[in-house]
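ok so for the tutorial part 2 we go from a plain amino acid sequence to predicted structure tokens. step 1 is just haveing the sequence, like this:
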Amino acid sequence: MKFLPRSILLAALAWLTTATVLHAAETDELLPVEQAFVVGAKALDRDTVRLDWKLAEHYYLYRERIKVTTADAGVALGAHELPEGEKKHDEFLGDVEVYHRDFSSKQKLNAPAGVAQITLAVRYQGCHEVAPKICYPPHTVKLAVDLPPAIAPTASDATNLLSGGGAGGALDTGEPLPVDKAYVFEAIATSPGEVLVRFTMPKGYYLYRDKTSFHADNASLGAPRWPEGKLHDDASFGKTTVYFDQVEVPIAVSGLAAGQPLRLTSTFQGCLEGSVCYPPTMRSLAVTMPADAAATDTGRGTSQQQTRPAASGGSLLAALFAALLGGLILNLMPCVLPVLSLKAISILEGGESPRHARKHVLWYAAGVLLSFVAVGLAVIALREAGLAYGWGYQLQQPLIVAILVYVIVAIGLSLSGVVQFGVGLTNAGQGLASHSGPAGDFFTGVLAVVVASPCTAPFMGSALAFAFASSTLTAFLVFIALGLGLALPFLLIGFVPALGKLLPKPGAWMETLKQLLAFPMYLTAAWLIWVLGNQRGVDAIGLVLVGVILLGLALWWFEHSRYANGAWRALALVALLLALPPLYAIARLDRPAAAQSTSTDHVAFSPARLDELRKSGKAVFVDVGADWCTTCKVNERAVLHTDAFRALLKRTDTTFMVADWTNPDPDIEAFLEKFHSVGVPLYVVFRKGEEGRALPTVLTQATVRDAIENADTQQRNAAP
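step 2 — the prediction. this is what the tokens look like for a chain of 720 residues:
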């Protein structure tokens, strides 16, 4: 029995990457207004300035909304000569003219002979005409224009002023404010390692938390520590967290050269309630960081247009050791064991030669390490972009879950003997092994990391939290340590001959074992289908089952027609292609409406509900989990869904609150970030009148009882 070849696995990985990118592209953000409508200016002579307009695809400008003014003393503007636009009936503005393509216009002016440069304020307004359809608020850019030298000043310069312009670009009554007036962006250094960012908005304007990110050109920034916002039912993004009036956000800073100002950039987006939504906007400022612990007001900067600690040697070594232990324990997780059993068989089949054993484990370790590096780089990139990240976060994407179902089922069918792919993980036969065995070993390591992603082993949480809150180099080292931990058992077997001799001898029993190992694969696929159903409903289950059947047909036909002619074997490719549309359909499905919970033993998580319970003096146990989190399910079966736990809650008058992170949820992400958790599970006990305390990743009855009951006892003993 042979395993999946490199071609199938490479195709699956390539499809996963391509499909994910395409799916993400559909939800790409709008262009900032300066990129959607680009305008430049050049003086043709001292009386005429040409404005060159470049419009991005699917964007248009209103002809009547283009205005040019100047505040330069002695400079008067005349007519603005615009080309004829396209006639359009606008639902808000009536009959208008618009521009869809690049064009040029001419602005007449009169400037004193001694003026060599003028500044034009160009105000315009336009729209995005495909989904998401929005109209930008009026926007103003300032253009500096060099004028050619005057040939001969004339007396008429002071009297023949052309009319038409106004100084200062006053706002039209009733129109939304320009973005720089609607969102005042400031920052102040509060310590050598932290800045406090502030957005101030007039009444009625609000800022999206999850559409706001921060970046520094010359330093590393920690995760923004957002305060609690308001849950807003937004027409564009659904239920999302926003801020009105003013919001202050602390951000940790590290890696800044001594004496250098912090160059801070924010990309943000917001709306005027009941009116327009602004496009993504970028603003930059410089902040002077103090040299000592006392922050000063000299660090303040104003826009014109979770902590990341510095790792000390001791804490870094502790994090690396914890990561190594966490990766080692991952080998024992139920999600990883089936794949590791396959790897053990491959070592047995090549076990008569220590050289072959080392070859197996080195390629396997390479697959593990490179996969962890890829995951680490992806997480770091998401962190720097200000997006959600966490261990296992990719399983929140239904498309990725569906592709994993395909891959796991294909592996199971190979183990069951439905199809033989030549050579793969089992590498039977030295000749074949020398030809393509390394690919099979390498992709076994990749697969081990993929199926390990829903698991969070002991020690992993603290190591990953340290990595995600530290510099890029530190995070990279932690992910390498995790990979070494996962690969360590097989590295020892390959390089310590005495351990290799403890393995059983190869024999016919291995064929039976391989076929038995297909069933854990099928169970894993069933679990992923269940997760998919919780994410996108029964339609997703039906689609993925249709796709799996077509995939099975393709693999069966591939094996059945192994020695047939090319045209006959091409039918297998046809069946394989037919298995792809269900994946596309799953990616397009909307999340089903949440069913109203009738459970009386817990309450659904919300920041407002948690605050309400705590203010009323209640103790609260918060369980943050997900359907795709196997550690969560083990804890539920062993502790949280038992009569003993329910009795404990009742005896101590503790409210059980459940936060389901199966699908992305900004409020849950903020809660995870608050407790420096990089993924689920997260368990937090809030004592009466005290801040929350996080519990270990793996729960026991004694751990939970001690955390809840002892706290309750302390409260009773302290009572008068």
